[in-house]
Amino acid sequence: MASYYYLIASLPDLKSDGEMPMSYQEFLDMCESNVSESKYEILKNLTLDSTEGPVVKEWSSFYGSMTKELNSQRSANLGKPYSASYDKDSMTAQIASAAMAAANPLEAEKIMLDYEFQQLDSLVGQHMFDDYVLFGYAIKLKLLERQNCFVHEKGEKEFRRLLGIVQQRVYDL
Fold first, then answer.
1. pLDDT tens string 22-78
2. Entry pTM
3. 7: domain range?
4. Which residues contact 53 (CB under 8 A, 6 or more apart)?
5. I want to staple 80 with a disulfide (CB 3.0 to 4.6 A). Which of 11, 17, 65, 75 is the partner?
6. Where are the alpha helices (DSSP H) in 23-151?
7. Number of domains present in the structure of the chain
8. What whole-number distance in Å separates Cα of residue 141 and Cα of residue 25?
């Protein structure tokens, strides 16, 4: 565990409104010689839906409830029933509602990401230089990795391409 001090102290800060300072693979490379083989395997296979690992079980419970709240609100907006049961939380419902009302999907993702980072900080709490901090960091990095998929320029380019196809088909009629 002594190598955790150096490892965790050397990790760059992660911010919900910041850039991804390293790839997940670079993070894994840093961890490989500093954590046990079993912890490394868990980190290597970590997804946002994982349930194994320190802080990951707690995260999974929160993330599942948040996903169900979003699905419930989407279903309600479509006038459809939502039958899955979950522990309804007023703050999660407010955040989901704000994300649903966002001007665009990127803004909605940013609202959710801020809340997810806050929840992870709360779950990690006062832990220092241990597995909770390391796994909390890994989840945040995975969240930023997902956020990087929402590149405005790429989305706009794809939208314009699809719009061009639709316009051409309308013109051909």
1. 999 999 999 999 999 999 999 999 999 999 999 999 999 999 999 999 999 999 999
2. 0.82
3. 2-172
4. 39, 42, 43, 46, 131, 135
5. 75
6. 24-32, 37-44, 56-77, 90-100, 105-124, 131-147
7. 1
8. 10
